[in-house]
Amino acid sequence: MEAIQTKPPGPEAAYQAALNEGRFLLQHCTSCNKHVFYPRAVCPHCSSTALEWDTPKGTGEVYSLTTVRRKPEAGGDYNVSIIELDEGVRMMSRVDGTPPADVKIGMRVRAKVIDNNGAGLVVFTAEESK
Length: 130
Fold this sequence. Notes:
Elements: H1 11-20, E1 26-29, E2 35-36, E3 51-54, E4 59-68, E5 78-85, E6 90-93, E7 95-96, E8 108-116, E9 119-126
Parallel strand pairs: 7-9
Antiparallel strand pairs: 1-2, 1-3, 4-5, 4-8, 5-6, 8-9
């Protein structure tokens, strides 16, 4: 009988598995010292495969945004934002806890992982003004 070979999960599966455990991770290239998002097998900056998982600070700012309009009975309006993390990567998400009209480009935000129907999801909340 032939042994069944299993290979480790790909980068996207590993990223989602960490989110499902409540952990937000980014890849970091040890060759060029840059962070990478979305998860990949090869660094897009230097083509190295020396990517390691790293816990980001989780802070950044709204780079771009739009408001999706919905009827109140469908959940009301919500925002879709591109967040530029302090590590230099951008990701699409949303800013929770702030009315869509109050989300602004340049707003400082902090990541949190929520449960989205059994799957971890990164969303952001506005940081307190200092």
